[in-house]
Design brief:
51% helix, two-stranded antiparallel sheet, 382 residues, mainly alpha, Dna Ligase, domain 1
Length: 382
């Protein structure tokens, strides 16, 4: 049986479908061609990019035995360090080196003086920067802030470097503009200290006991900021504990400065901190000899009755509370003892300076007996 002939309209529709199919095939071929070209281009660009980055991270001169001293200033960012290394012709490209450090999560690069060579790889350069720079007796000096030292004692240590003068340091401790700038930078740490009235030095107690390197050209403000930054770093570990304490941070630092000098071992420091807290809770004067010596602004082996009457807001034989602020720079151990004090019922303690043993008592009568026994006890033959 013969198929019926197609009408002109049907022929026209069939031709149109064939044309559409041809156009789709052509578009598909073009798309595939473009995709292949783009893929090839991406591969070429990727390979070129890889070669560029890889080449930028290669040693500047692998055969060079040359040594170049490079100074990395305190506070330099990774980007700034990369630029210094490029300028000193240690690396090829600062931007690529900085990008590489970001990818590798490189942080905590150290300031100081380093001996680099153009033959070093990027990894070798970074590994070197993660260590402390040259200790340089040649170009670097140190300031040692000892535990329990006050501002004026620290001033002497700073003066001994030969880099700064103690008079300039004391002047800086009283510079309101400098103190205001520090308070803006460390509000949680210093706000209460700067509000305190009658304090001799607002930064007393906040220059953390440690050894500080003095880099060439480093000004006095930078050195002090390192000390404050160290205190902030240490105290931030105890932020939650301080927030739960009945004392604020400034009061804790003040109490810790007394505990630093009154106790020797951790157990006694914790006990003494507890005794001081008991007296504070009862609004009793702390009667600490440490406060008298600070008020007198002198060192004495023994405090006399006359000494305890010195007119000073720091004299805790004459005033209740903790006074204007810290009496020295307390150690972290003293701070820990102050925060983790041992709860007890004692209101008095007595330290035997010869044996180092500390005696505790709940009443004044008990305390006086201990004084007679360990302090006023007659010598043999008398």
């Amino acid at each position: 049986m013969k198929r019926p002939l197609k009408t002109p309209a049907e022929k026209k529709m069939e031709e149109k479908r064939k044309q559409q199919n041809r156009e789709r095939d052509l578009a598909g071929k073009i798309s595939r061609s473009i995709l292949r070209v783009l893929l090839l281009l991406a591969l070429i660009l990727g390979f070129a990019g890889y070669r560029y980055v890889s080449n930028a991270l290669q040693p500047l001169s692998s055969s060079s035995a040359k040594k170049v001293e490079v100074e990395i200033p305190l506070g330099s960012s990774n980007r700034q360090i990369a630029q210094i290394l490029e300028d000193k012709k240690i690396i090829r490209n600062a931007k690529i080196f900085n990008l590489y450090m970001k990818v590798q999560n490189v942080a905590d690069l150290q300031a100081g003086y380093y001996d680099f060579s153009p033959s070093m790889t990027a990894k070798q350069v970074i590994k070197q920067l993660e260590k402390q720079g040259k200790d340089s007796a040649e170009k670097q000096k140190k300031v040692l802030v000892r535990e329990g030292e006050n501002i004026e004692q620290i001033a002497k240590a700073i003066d001994q470097t030969g880099v700064y003068k103690k008079e300039d340091f004391i002047h800086l401790m009283q510079d309101d503009n400098f103190l205001s700038d520090l308070a803006k930078e460390y509000p949680d740490l210093l706000s209460d200290s700067l509000k305190s009235k009658d304090s001799r030095y607002k930064l007393e107690g906040y220059l953390f006991p440690a050894t500080y390197n003095v880099l060439a050209g480093e000004d006095l403000k930078t050195l002090v900021k390192k000390m404050i930054a160290k205190t902030d770093q240490v105290m931030s570990k105890y932020k939650e504990q301080i927030e739960e304490d009945e004392l604020n941070l400034h009061q804790i630092m003040t109490l810790a400065s007394l505990v630093e000098k009154e106790g020797v071992n951790l157990e006694d420091r914790k006990m003494i901190a507890g005794v001081f807290r008991n007296r504070l809770a009862r609004d009793m004067m702390l009667q600490s000899d440490i406060s008298v010596l600070y008020a007198l602004n002198k060192h004495k082996e023994f405090v006399t009755l006359k000494d305890t009457k010195v007119d000073s807001p720091y004299n805790l034989y004459q005033h209740t509370g903790l006074g204007p602020g810290p009496f020295n720079s307390p150690s972290e151990a003293a701070i820990q003892a102050t925060l983790n004090y041992i709860k007890n019922d004692n209101l008095y303690f007595l330290a035997n300076l010869k044996t180092g043993k500390v005696y505790y008592s709940k009443t004044y009568e008990e305390h006086q007996k201990l004084v007679e026994e360990h302090i006023n006890k007659p010598k043999d033959g008398q």
